[in-house]
Automatic annotation (TrEMBL):
Superkingdom of origin organism: Bacteria
All residue ranges annotated as the Phosphoribosyltransferase domain in the record: 108-244
Residue intervals of the Bacterial purine repressor N-terminal domain: 4-72
Source species: Domibacillus mangrovi
Assigned protein family: Belongs to the purine/pyrimidine phosphoribosyltransferase family. PurR subfamily.
Gene3D superfamilies: 3.40.50.2020, Winged helix-like DNA-binding domain superfamily/Winged helix DNA-binding domain
InterPro entries, per the entry: PRTase-like, PRTase_dom, Pur/Pyrimidine_PRTase, PuR_N, PurR_Bsub, WH-like_DNA-bd_sf, WH_DNA-bd_sf
Complex and partners: Homodimer.
Keywords: DNA-binding, Transcription, Transcription regulation
Residues in the signal sequence: none
Protein name in the entry: Pur operon repressor
GO biological process, one term: negative regulation of DNA-templated transcription
GO molecular function, one term: DNA binding
Amino acid sequence: MKFRRSERIIYMTHYLLENPHQLVSLTLFAERFGSAKSSISEDLAIIKETFEKCGIGTLKTVPGAAGGVKFYSRVNNQDAKVFINDLCRQLKNPDRLLPGGYLYIMDLLGHPGIMNQVGKLLASAYADEKIDAVMTVATKGIPIAHAIAAHLNVPVVVVRRDSKVTEGPTVSINYVSGSTKRIQAMVLSKRSLKEGSKVLLVDDFMKGGGTINGMISLLAEFNASVAGIAVLVEAEYSDRLINDYISLVKLKDVNEKEAAISVVEGNYFSKGIEFLQEESK
């Protein structure tokens, strides 16, 4: 069956978007369409140019007989700013205010479109890092972790507060909460994480950083290392245990008496400014 170039490009675009960070050989497409590799290369050049122009992502070529192309999600500066500013606007709604200065965000965490964009932004920030897994603590961090992992094409590892019989043997640690200074427990199945893995840690709301610090201690039990730390919302906090992280939104102040919430951009642009500028040129 003969395929037109437009049909090949549509199929290859769909395939690459569905398989991010996966090495795809030109042979796969050449055999699928009965086309010469030179034609496939020209098609991929068109896809790459369009991806970068539209802020969708980029293609990287891996040379050699066993080479091919890999798709990496990217977000240009303008699109990222629009999304984060809209996120700030939604979080400023006084109806979100909860006792203790926390914000209700379950509606955002349950929205597939918002989570997909959150995942794309945070995955873009770590697109060039070697990441074997994304880790978070149950339960609110799970949607964010899955969204990021989908764009990085890696598994999700969920840390729990107590052991489950269905998870088999577990590793347990105690850690000190960064804000309340209480001692809490973390449990992870021994089968969840391979030794020596490079892990992206994810949290939905970070105040003192105790939860992240606990996950770092848990990684040490697996001889694993931190590849990065991604946070949806960080709160203004003077005695934070964690310094090197990326956040989308920062909660600066909450006035419960006046039901006023002060929310601004997180440190996303100051941390990821280099690749964002490059992709927006």
